[in-house]
Amino acid sequence: MKKQCLLLLLLLATFCLHAQKISMEFGNISQYEMDYTTCDFDSVAEAVVLFDVGKSRFVHSENGFNIRFTRHKRLKVLDNAGVDYAQIEIPFYHKDYSYEKVSNIKAVSFNFEDGVPRKTELPNKDWFVEKVNENWDVLKFAIPDVKKGTVIEYSYELETPFKFHLPDWEFQDRIPIIYSKYEVRMVPFFEYISLLKGAKKYDENKAYVAEGMERHFGGVDFRDMVYEFGMHNVPAFRDEELISSRNDYLLQLDFQLAQIKYPTGGSSQIMSTWPKIVDELEGHEEFGKFVKRSKKTAEDLLDVAHLQSMPEQERFNAVMQYVKGNYNWNEWYGQRASKTVKELLNDKYGSAADLNLLAVGLLQACNLEVYPVWISTRGHGKIPYDYPFTHFFNYVLIYAKIDGQNVLTDATDEYLPNDRIPLFCINDLGLVINSDNEEVSWIKLKQDIPSKAYVQYKLKVKDAKIKAEVSKMTTEYDACYYRKNFGVKEERFKEEAQKTGYVFTDESLKTKTFEALEKPYIFSYNVETDAVSLNDKIYVPPFLNDVISDNPLKQKVRNYPVDFTIPKIRSFTSYVQIPEGYEASYIPSNLNISNDLVKIKYTTMLNDGYLVCTFEYHVKQAIYYAEDYHEIQEMFNQVISKGNDKIVLTKL
User: Which residues contact 522 (CB under 8 A, 6 or more apart)?
Assistant: First the structure.
């Protein structure tokens, strides 16, 4: 406890020292900042944010109020790797004919040369806009003349007509932040709920009534209510491997519009309840009514009478295959349908919401019990279930009861079996949109069946070459991955072989069960490479460098779960023919680790001129708690060590 208190005092003293020597006036760079070379609380940081200050306030507009957000940020590049932070992205939202607007962009870099600061400004309008999806664009620019030692500074203004888009604030980034502050000036007509993630309290937190002249709107005189939130010496958020979404763990402040209060009296409740949200969705033009219209069109698209006579499983598969085979996904997600049913049927392509809501209607027309499921994808973050807000969701799935079994499915991926959902959708719970239930129903999105990849190698060493016959059997999501990304194209397998340093032997590819999605996907091919030899010794990697060689878990400490999405099994068996005139002078040792968390097993056996090496590791759980971090980290170390160990053949 004494050490922790001392560390806290040192960090506070460090922050106070920085605060005294850093001016927040744009372009006023001090000698202290130019000489700054190492972050006091993160010695390996490639860059550091000196300060990041944001302000939001309500300004009068033609429609009442807009929200004007300004941001001013300065950082120091400490290493060549930190140059990447000169690439700036500003996302902005639009819906129908309403747009957020980005303006007043200023960006400069400062370099000290011969004791004199040299300023380089971003050329006027030297930026571009990139479309992300139907509602989001991002403005991008690169601050010029940035290298190790450069101080970068930029500011901009964003104005939004969307009151539900009161800008959130991230106190944390991939590099450390010395000072982060967000100021929000509220008016009495909009009530928000604030959610602090990643911490229990702020280093600075003030609330007060703004001074100066009163403002006037709708016959009401008022002063802004000012809220200030600050954090000091925020550590970098680096370990982003094997997590659901950085949004789930990043230190940040989110705002949700809860209520609108009108100057004339009365109010509109924005924060809803889950049952009310379900009811509203079922009556929504782009959701429940879209499903009903899809159901009515079923007779024009399918032989419904014939389908209704089939067993449930066959009926279900037939409809899903029809949608997957006739409509293409445009890779947009969507809370609700983006087109009318007629437009979708004509265009033959649409968003995930379009395709899945269409499938729900067609399945219901075939007398199957089917409902839409509202979810948040992995990259979008988990749903805070205590706060019934619709914008937490960004995707629609399908829930069906087939022969008494609960099935989750999705119509966007033709390579996935009909009883599986995409990996990016496996994210905690989904909300079943069925108002007939007395209580709101949530369904688990997890997948407990392991995804497997079994690889077999037959290696021959001859004439300074290693020649290998490789065969692989994959199941579940591994099978989907290879079907989708490799298919039966020899060129793709050649590219993959080259990544591990091997040459693909032409016309050796053979595949099985490519179209049978319910079966494992099996393929085989031949490769060869030069053998590594030294002093009458040949070094043979029994698994051809296919095993991972870099541990994704590099941090010493981790405070959040390790998320593999699904359980996984990897199995490798290699038959290494010992060439005539050689012996195996080094054979990797056996290993057997098995517990509730993982399994790692390595065995070797000499048999009739062959050395048989078998290696398997099993990630038994989809998600591991933070307290299991070191054991999972060590598992990867063992996998890398054993999986890449080489056999040594010595000339007799």
Answer: 471, 472, 473, 474, 511, 512, 513
Among residues 422, 397, 412, the alpha carbon closest in space to that of 480 is found at: 422
- Mean pLDDT rounded to a whole number for the chain: 92
DSSP strand pairing (429-432 vs 369-375)? antiparallel
What count of residues does the chain have? 652
**Residue 577 in contact with residue 538, Cβ under 8 Å?**
no
- pLDDT tens digit sequence for 193-214: 998 988 989 999 999 999 989 9
pLDDT tens, residue by residue, 455-473: 999 999 988 899 999 999 9
What does the alpha-carbon distance between residue 612 and residue 581 come to, in Å, rounded to a whole number?
Answer: 19
Q: How far apart are CA 110 and CA 153, in angstroms?
A: 8
Q: Coil, strand or helix: which one is 502?
A: coil
**CA–CA distances in Å: residue 166 to residues 66, 198, 334:** 10, 20, 21
C-alpha–C-alpha distance, residues 633 and 384, integer Å: 29
Tokens standing for residue 646: 């080489």
In angstroms, rounded to a whole number, what is the distance separating the alpha carbons of residues 479 and 484? 8
Query: From CA 263, how far away is CA 270, in angstroms rounded?
Result: 17
CA angle 400, 406, 409 (to 5 degrees): 50
Better-predicted residue by pLDDT, 22 or 326 = 326
Q: How far is residue 600's CA from residue 570's CA, in Å, rounded to a whole number?
A: 10
* Two structure tokens written together for 545: 């460098």
- What confidence tier does 13 reach under pLDDT thresholds 50, 70, 90? very low
Domains of the chain listed by start with CATH number: 2-238+245-267 (2.60.40.3140), 274-444 (3.10.620.30), 451-651 (2.60.120.1130)
